[in-house]
Batch of 3 targets.
Target 1
Amino acid sequence: MTDAFSFNDDLGPLKVIHVNIPKHNVKGILVVDNVAAGPSIGGLRMAPDVTLAECFRLARSMTMKNAAAGLQHGGGKSVIVGDPHMSHAEKEPMIRAFAKALAGEQHYIFGPDMGTDEQCMAWVKDEIGRAVGLPRAIGGIPLDELGATGFGLAVSADVAIDYCDFELDGAPLAVQGFGSVGMHAARFLMQKGVQLVAAADSQGTLFDPNGIDVEALIAHKKSRQSVTTFGTGKVLPPDAVIGVDCDIWIPAARPDVINMGNYQNFKAKLILQGANIPITLEAERKLEESGVLIVPDFIANAGGVICAAMEYHGQTQTGAFAAISEKISHNAREVLERAKREHGTTREAAVRLASERVRAAMATRRFGVF
């Protein structure tokens, strides 16, 4: 369904705005979900098949993520229909026009996401003065360049391993979506002894049970090459990464990549969700029932938005990474302990944790929102 009213509940959304600018070939959506804790922060995503339903689900995930992290911000998300691989020259007029159309929406602060980066946020900042994840040259903390989200995933792994029957040192890792989040997660986990055995992008999966040189693969990807042309290992179809024999699996691309049609192929013991909503709720429950430990998206991948919020409030890079480590470590342990104590799923525990914090913030505001 695409009817905005289908998604309403007591938390939001506060507003849904459709943007259509034919002159610049812009079709986009903004969902501001909840702003009880403060103005919403959420990324601007570009993809050819984004929908209102996806935008709302991502906005709600940001509400949960920001609340769980204890940030003074609510959740929102914006999307533009377009090819995320188009050149900066092609993206610039589209993103500038989209930002300008939303100049009056003070409840929303733009951040980078799939298909957008620090340069895109610089254009938004130039147009409306309201963006985070900015280039270093204009005072930002470039969270994608530094790998803030990937760093947070490695922090969550440090906590989750206490609930697993294997060690991080030597653990085989598969990454679905070897982009800005996936590659940095692999890099930070490699420093803990984890061994990358599979990496996938839209062109295919690179598999090598003997291990893949992470730094060399990152350099290869940064030269705008697919993992499939790396030159070593075996090349498999993109979806084959789901069934790779490994201990740790990181989804770092689009929503719902694991679902009821493919979850039976899964072999990993621990999932650190680098993407937002990467597994359908039904498949997530089935995986947990089979013994897979899952650290949910808005707990595990909060590093990027924590970094963005710290930037927005004038913190340094050192301060931002310290906050990521502290907040994700605390919240991951609290969620895993609560799930264990209450005999429920980790997502149920995470949603309860975040919802309690959102409602506590709403109780302090007139009419619950403003």
Target 2
Amino acid sequence: MNLEDFLDSLISALLLAGIYAAMSAGMTIIYGVMKIVNLAHAGFLMLGAYFAYELFERFHIDPILGAVLALPVFFLFGVAVHWLLVHWLPKSDQPTLASLLLMFGFWLVLQNVALLIWHNEDRSINTSYTLTSFHLGDISISKVRLAVFVAAALSVIVLQIGLRRSWFGRSMRSLIQNPYAAQIVGVDQRKTAMFTFGLGTAFAGFAGALLAMLYSFSPDFGRPFLLRSFVIIVLGGLESFSGVAIGALVLALVETYSIRLPFVEASYQPAISYGLLVLVLLVLPRGIAGLLERKWRTG
């Protein structure tokens, strides 16, 4: 691999890491506060893709704006899902079989509703800048990938600021650190959990709309990205919001550079992601963020 190929792959990995971070943030938020492994995350990603598609096809709304519009719409959708289904689950400090079955079943419902409405045809969003790029010397950068990266990165930054500065963010972080102490000082666990599920769903819909600009999609669209989200949050340490960015970058680098190897095809990426997940669970069960935290305490 020459220097040009190396730099081209590095830029591609960085651009990919941005959307991966936004894609996984919602799952991390929900797991951290509610200890629910949200398998319906794949369904929310898929609906986000169709949301942007319908806005683009029917009203000629740019998919970037469509992704922004998805945030309030999917937030309300997530709040409704929590009120109708999720809040009936028993409270637990660890993921339960009931929560796994409920979210898996809801994912199947969403998938079949999408099949009824849009059928099983692959669709895509093609804008005026989809196939355009600009050049930095001999390196070509896709305009649509750059636009998606900027939108995703800004959303993650705003989320981080909101979690650190707002009352809602402080309530979420207190429930993650010590739910019993948080309730003692007056944190409303039920309301915070409902808004957390809404926020996690909003980010899933937002990320799905952005992903629809990069990939073709069908009702089964969210499945491969669900696996990637698992890998990222495990790499990041499950409950670490800052760890999501680390996990997204590591996965993007591994996927991008692995297909440069002569014996690795692009179709092997899901297997690479799964192998990385198994490796991290065996070697770094607390993720990279947990390793850095332990080194910081002992340093």
Target 3
Amino acid sequence: MKERYILSLDQGTTSSRAILFNRSGVAIGQRQIPFKQIFPKPGWVEHDPEEIWASQLAAARGAIEAAQIESDQVCAMGIANQRETTVVWDRASGKPVYNAIVWQCRRSSDICDELRALGLSDLVRERTGLVLDPYFSGTKLMWLFDRLPGLRARAERGEVMFGTIDSWLIYKLTGAHLTDPTNASRTLLFNIRTGAWDEELLKLFKIPAAILPRVAPSSGVLGLARKEFLGAEIPVAGCAGDQQAALFGHACFEAGEAKNTYGTGCFTLMNTGPTPVASRHGLLTTVAWDLGRGYTYALEGSVFIAGAVVQWLRDQMGMLADSSESEELARSVEDSGEVYLVPAFVGMGAPYWDADARGTVVGITRGTTKAHFVRAALESIAYQSKDLLDAMEKDAGADIRCIKADGGASANSFLMQFQADILDRRVILPEVGEITALGAAYLAGLATGYWDSLAEVAGNWRRKREFVPSLSEEKRKRLLDSWGKAVLAARAYK
């Protein structure tokens, strides 16, 4: 009898990946395909939805080919995706009406200002767990209705469909118009307590309900991928936003367990169990997953620019030929030479939520070298994560004993050690690096009986490496005080 596997589609901000996993949670074949980033104006970020689909399909075919298996050996498929990125497409033709507006895009800042001026902040926070910020899908959708002639009228007639990237991929694969609560909870339109699209918010935001996808559990069969795509009808049986998928992949199944993903952005999530915890310190309350037995919730802190700051050093600044060089350069100097870089290239996320903050460098002298600059950029990732952890512990009323880490930048040992030092907490890396994709695979596999239980899934989690803090309290405090001053400078420049 042929061995069977789970296919995971990990659709990210800069690339589309597909990975095949076996029952032990080990990757046996994968493919990654980058796609174009579109920057029409400063602070604006777009993707071509058709390129996302084409790259994701090619990655899925490539993963099956790399694993040297037949399509009928894939028993289910899970999807993890960049979350708030917004797509609207024609119901009849299936063609996008505009480029995807990416979660990083700040074009709807004025709309958020207008909604805040109407006094809607508290209502939005209470219903959705979110803050009024351009990060989320709802105001991106409002911008499209305001700027594209006739789009709102077409939406009211049910002629177009809206979705985040999960919905777009599910639609392309199966023809169904679906999402899950983890993605719905990032739109500003979904009531995380009732588990439904919020009629009052839809009315206030002037968004027709007819364009919204149906919300299905994160683990459950959503439809069958058509045979023409991968050579077999494969059930799409798992779906979660990338950060929630990573929390699941880390087996953070108990309240109080937390992870940090170092990707394009940086995202700290803590499982809070079956009850949503309202943040008082600038974090988000979000749905962690739905296994069909009621929601599990999480607190989340979101940093917009993390690994992307290294890409910026490489692509825009020309300081690196390859991102991997950043670790060696950072280690070549004893410290950052009192240089601090605040990468607020698209404003600042949690816990500040300052859409007007801008990227800032302080402390430069004649003695500053490229190595100091690169080290300061890497350290900024750790400092931003420290800000999130402090807010999370205040909201939870308890200390987080350790952080499970994943994502591309977690391969940088300098960064991970500095993170442990600044947090004064252990940072633990898993044996399987592709933890986001693994989480989506687990959701699909649990839905189809590939894995029997959460206990079996948790048994697959294995530790690869642990970083232990070694910095003195005095030095830690001095560094954090200086970071705080740099953040003030970034927020003062409007």
